[in-house]
Design goal:
The protein has 7 helices and 5 strands, in the order H-E-H-H-E-E-E-E-H-H-H-H. The protein is an alpha+beta fold.
């Protein structure tokens, strides 16, 4: 019986050890030290003072009291599953100016070049066309004494719209605003504005006819 228990224990131990390669338990990634990137190292230049270096790289992780002219930056990434990544950068100063850089990352001459300015792209938005609200919406706004906000952009189907007034893509924003305002002034009054007046006139005439009888 004892031999059977020993054999079963050995088999169970081997089985558990064999299952250790499967990620059954979640492990978090552990980061230690200063996050060091190649872009930050590319910004370092000989002759920079301590304040400029600290602005780019941050405060050093290791500052030796007996070697104040040496700053050590260490970054260690221990993923839950995978290989450990370690980056190390050591900066040396002479007369409070950066003189030498050593470690796993070095300034890249190609990457340290000043990036080109992004090209300015002008985006021209076409004028917005007003959508007819419909007879039911017009009647509802008239019954509730609410006015629909007048759109500053008129539809191309309106009589007051002229294609000659259409802003060209090369015109400036001020010219486009002036043209749009000019077009909106020339556009006829929307139908939903004149509807209450016409309805009141019709009701007045109908009431007069009934009283006349």
């Amino acid at each position: 019986m004892k031999k059977l228990l020993i054999i079963m224990t050995c088999i169970a131990s081997l089985t558990i050890a064999a299952c250790s390669r499967y990620h059954l338990v979640h492990k978090i990634d552990v980061q230690q030290g200063n996050v060091i990137t190649q872009d930050e190292v590319n910004l370092l230049e000989p002759g920079m003072n301590r304040r400029q270096v600290q602005f780019v790289m941050g405060s050093p992780m290791i500052a030796d009291v007996f070697h104040q002219d040496r700053w050590d930056y260490v970054y260690l990434l221990e993923p839950g599953y995978g290989e450990t990544t370690e980056e190390r950068v050591t900066l040396f100063f002479e007369d409070d100016q950066l003189s030498r850089i050593t470690g796993t990352l070095h300034p890249d001459e190609a990457g340290s070049a000043a990036p080109s300015r992004p090209k300015q792209v002008t985006l021209v938005v076409p004028p917005e066309e007003r959508v007819d609200p419909g007879i039911f919406n017009k009647l509802w706004h008239w019954m509730t004494f609410r006015k629909v906000g007048e759109a500053s952009y008129v539809s191309s189907h309106d009589p007051g719209y002229s294609r000659t007034n259409k802003p060209s893509p090369v015109s400036s924003s001020e010219e486009q605003e002036h043209i749009l305002l000019h077009r909106s002034e020339q556009a006829p009054a929307p139908f939903f504005i004149t509807l209450p007046s016409a309805a009141r006139c019709f009701l007045t005439c109908l009431g007069s006819a009934i009283n006349g009888r």
